[in-house]
Amino acid sequence: MPAGRLAVRKTYKLFVGGAFPRSESGRTYEVRGANVALASRKDLRDAVVAARAAQPGWAGATPYLRGQILYRVAEMLEARAAEFGALGVAAAEVAAAVDRWVWYAGWADKVAQVRGNANAVAGPYFNLSVPEPLGVVGVVAPADGPLLALTSVLAPAVVTGNTAVVLAAAAHPAAALTLAEAVATADVPGGVVNLLTGRAAETAPWLAAHRDVDGLDLTGLTDADLARECESAAAETLTRVRRPAPEDFAADPGTGRLAAWLETKTVWHPKGR
Amino acid sequence: MFAYAPAPESPAVVDLRSHYGLFVGGEFVAPAAGGSRKTVNPATEEVLAEVAEADAADVDRAVRAARAAYAAVWGPMPGAERAKYLFRIARILQERAREFAVLETLDNGKPIRESRDTDVPLAAAHFFYHAGWADKLRYAGFGDAPAPLGVAAQVIPWNFPLLMLAWKIAPALACGNTVVLKPAETTPLTALLFAEVCRQADLPPGVVNMVTGDGAVGAALAAHGGVDKVAFTGSTAVGRQIARALAGTTRRLTLELGGKAANIVFDDAPVDQAVEGIVQGIFFNQGHVCCAGSRLLVQESVHDEVLDALRRRVARLRVGDPMDKNTDLGAINSAAQLARITALAEAGEAEGAQRWSPPCALPERGYWFAPTVFTGVSTAHRIAREEIFGPVLSVLTFRTADEAVAKANNTPYGLSAGVWTEKGSRILAMADRLRAGVVWANTFNVFDPASPFGGYRESGYGREGGRHGLESYLA
Amino acid sequence: MVATQSADGAGPVGGDGPTGDAGPVGRGRPVGGDGPVLADVGRTDRALRGFLHGLPGVDEVGAARRTAQLATRSVKTTAKAYAVDLAIRMLDLTTLEGADTDGRVRSLCAKARRPDPADPGCPPVAAVCVYPSMVATAAAALRGTDVHLASVATAFPSGQAPTAVKLADTRAAVAAGADEIDMVISRGAFLSGRYAQVHDEIAAVRRECGPAHLKVILETGELGSLDQVRRASWLAMLAGADFVKTSTGKISPAATTPTVLVMLEAVRDFRAATGRQVGVKAAGGIRTTKEALRYLVLVEETVGAPWLSPRWFRFGASSLLNDLLLQRAKLATGAYHGPDYVTVD
Questions:
Q1: List of chain C residues whose C-beta atoms are within 8 Å of the C-beta of residue A126
Q2: What string of DSSP letters covers B39-94?
Q3: Environment class of residue B34 by beta-carbon count within 10 Å: exposed (0-12), middle (13-18) or buried (19+)?
Q4: Could you give the percent of chain C with pLDDT greater than 70?
Q5: Which chains touch A (3 or more CB pairs under 8 A)?
């Protein structure tokens, strides 16, 4: 630390609806010397409200625009490489995370072509299947690392028009919130990405049981009993669930995570004169 | 004067046995506990046959048979060979179509016209379509080496007994899985006839297994630890239970559940076809259709015109003997379902909606419900929110496209929707905004094996049919 | 919409109620005193366009789906016996060939009066339909019978003649004894949006018809869409048509079930709007009993009993009659029949 000047420390708060509020509970927990907001179920409730409000507009944005905005996230992330370094994130991981945002940015206007289909039905009908976003996706982020794993679960959820409520890994809140800052400065509309720090074990059951959540990514829940409870709670409204499973986030991500948060809508129309 | 004389289809083409066993490992076998259940013709309440009632031990035996066939025969078999078995099954279904249609109508109560012209031809088409996929799966877009999941447990409802069987078995087999299927307790007969088709096709023993019985059998099958995949079509309540039962496991699940579809008629609709679509939407198969257009949303400016035309058309429906070739509306499938429809219709009246049915004489024996139209329905009425699964239409009104979308989407379901308007850009905008897995624009209740079918939200997850449907059966 | 009811209300043939049967030759509707129906609809191209294009559209696939479903209706035993006789009674037995001669027309008239010489119980057909030059011959051959005499007119089949010629054609046919005139509309004018011209021509021909009853041939095979069939039907009805008729028989496709479905919907809606009932004639391409029964099913299920009589529904066909007779004989005897047991035309 340079002598003569006292550094200004960053306060790590939640990221909800495009703003950085403190937890309504007033609680914090300490990670590597920093006091980090400890999100409550009411913060979760607010985050879902923000995500729901943002969803139609985000899904209604052109894929071209969503792609550019995700690419802008990559730009903002790249520019913060030094800051991530100072938080202990390896340069290679930052680079991989940037590249992953770029990879998913490119999917915005291609996913319909890969996941959609013109169907040759036995009759005089136009029949087209198109992918649509589910709506609001709740994500329990994996603790596998500070940045790449989080990126790998968040980007594929939002690129297709979903909005996300992410429970960040308890051990890596600073990197997660620095990513949130990149998101906030990348023209991502408020509420598209919402990030709660704290203990997933406390908030995940509320996320799972929330009736206005359409998809649930339990990747980060390593406690099998809790994961089962969450999946069971999600069944109440038939919420789509991705179960926890070991994953190599350094590998080619494929399209599985894109597909997990898509519905298929099939439209019929007669062909007549 | 001009009138239709009775034109009954002959039941003689069906060779009904008095007792049916379970179909396990390629053989009809007696259930472990020896229980059985009578299946009746809902149009006459006559007993058609006694069908074995499986228990947990029988389910276990069937799953083991499916596992053995998967490991030894069906899993390793080249796709091109699997394809030929499925083509063979498709052909046999076509050849024995009349027999299947008659049996379906006897056991289910649906009009012979529908079983003959819709259920059976579509079932054959499903096998034909999926047969061709069996050796082309790596071109389906799900990776270079798509693999089967293993043993699929499949539980199907009573509304389209053979067709739902085809929707389940054809993709599972095409993808290399083996199956244990539980038909609905009130409609097991065409599934058991299909078991005979499997034998006729020389399908290796154990590739298809059938366990018959009630919901407990389905629950035991769905919860069986020896299966890799569960596929269920039925009520949202049961789907929810299955989803809970599978929580924390690695078993894959697809669900095709209930619906409360809005059929939206704008003032510029092609009125005569819209009326046909409304009728087809709610009275097809006595309204025992998960994607039925059970909520008619009609623009206020044409409400009276559309309702007059609809009543005139509904009055033309021919209700009665399902075996008569000119019958449009057959029997309700069971006493239990009739009671549910009756109760909900009474609730509709009690809540102040106006009930109308055309004058029509219903047979004395059997389970019957006259086609019914409720007008003056509000979004708060039970008949506008709950799935009735019967020939009961709830009519609501709207003023603008935005209001139509808001009302249409105001349900936890999301299976299907209909839009009637001659304006192309409005169709596309509506199709974008309706939260439903299938949107029929200027048509309704059309189905095809190449077209993915399945719901949003509480109507379930996963798709059946088309390229998309394969994903449910591939690792 | 307020109807301007024609003086005789129920329809063009005086005294016949909507369910009445074909009247005897010479009973036409009284001329004059007939204001235009839907008088509030202007008769300019612009006004007619506004009206006709404001009619509900027709989805072709949906219409075909409906008729395909109705084609599965089973008409057997007693129902079939009634329907076959009804189809015979609805038949406009037609010969419209360049090679027609007096002898051929007289032979056809004899068959019209008594289709099955071996069975006096077999009903006569509704009408004989010939070219104007054959009307006098046919009138003589049909004198004293209940069989109507229809003549095509207005430069049939193309209609490509000056209006004065068309009117003269009509006048001549009526003068020679035709009590039904089957005119063609100017499809060219219709397709180019000159609706007033089509309307006025129909109205003028209607006046020339006097007591004869006017069938307006839309030639639906040239109209291009079912929307146009609906518009043309309404235009003809607005102009005073007693019947709308699908086709000349010279163009393929001629009558199709979706086309007739749309025309039946049009006459149904027209009656609801104006109180005036208009008939429908399916002509061209109907050769078998099975096809004819499909049309009767279509009538039954679309407009029902009020149209199920020769007064309100007709078949225009030449070879259909023999197939109806074969079926009739099969029903009577239980054995399948051969073509040598019915007369050649």
A1: none
A2: EEETTTTEEEEEEE---HHHHHHHHHHHHHHIIIIITTS-HHHHHHHHHHHHHHHH
A3: exposed
A4: 90
A5: B, C
d(CA B166, CA B288): 18
Q: How far apart are CA B118 and CA C196, in angstroms?
A: 46
pLDDT category of residue C35 using cuts at 50, 70 and 90 = low
CATH code of the domain covering residue C323: 3.20.20.70
Looking at the domain assignment, is residue B447 inside a domain? Answer: no
Whether C182 is a known active-site residue: answer: yes
What are the extents of the domains in chain A?
Answer: 28-270
The subunits that touch chain C, with at least 3 C-beta pairs less than 8 Å apart, are: A, B
Average pLDDT, chain A: 97
Residue B278, domain CATH: 3.40.309.10
The verdict on C333 touching A (C-beta cutoff 8 Å) is: no
| B162 exposure class (CB count in 10 Å sphere: 0-12, 13-18, 19+) | buried
Tally the domains of chain B: 2
Residue at C316 is within a domain: yes
* B6 within some domain: no
Q: Are residues B142 and B155 in the same domain?
A: yes
> How far does the CA of residue C173 sit from the closest CA of chain A (Å)?
37
Does residue C21 belong to any structural domain of this protein? no
Give per-residue pLDDT as tens, C261-270: 999 999 999 9
Radius of gyration over every alpha carbon of chain B, rounded to an integer in angstroms: 22
Q: Which domain holds residue C274?
A: 53-335
Tokens 């419900």 sit on residue: B369
**Touching B: C residues 227-266, CB under 8 Å:** 262, 265
Q: What is the CATH number of the domain that holds B201?
A: 3.40.605.10
Our count of domains for chain C comes to: 1
- The CA–CA distances, whole Å, from C310 to A251, C91, C228 equal 79, 8, 26
Interface A-B, measured as beta-carbon pairs within 8 A, has a size of 107
Question: Is ipTM over 0.90?
Answer: yes
Same domain as B311, residue B222? no
Res A34: pLDDT:
92
Has residue A2 got a pLDDT over 90? Answer: no
Please name the CATH architecture into which domain A28-270 falls: 3-Layer(aba) Sandwich (3.40)
Min CA distance, A222 vs chain C (Å)?
54
Determine the Cα–Cα distance for residues B361 and B240; give it in Å rounded to an integer: 39
**What is the tens place of the pLDDT at every residue in C85-97?**
999 999 999 999 9
Taking contacts as CB-CB distances below 8 angstroms, the residues of chain B near C258 are none
Q: Are B155 and B252 in the same domain?
A: yes
Inter-chain touch B441–A268, beta carbons under 8 Å: yes
pLDDT for the residue B393 = 98
Domain limits at B307? 262-441
Q: How far apart are CA C150 and CA C178, in angstroms?
A: 5
Q: Is B222 within a domain?
A: yes
Chain-chain contact of C72 with B325 (C-beta, under 8 angstroms):
yes
**CB neighbour burial string for C94-112, b if at least 16 within 10 angstroms, e if fewer:** bbbeeebeeebbbbbbebb
Express each pLDDT in B171-210 by its tens digit: 999 999 999 999 999 999 999 999 999 999 999 999 999 9
Please tell me whether residues B96 and B45 are part of one structural domain. yes
Q: Is B422 a catalytic residue?
A: no
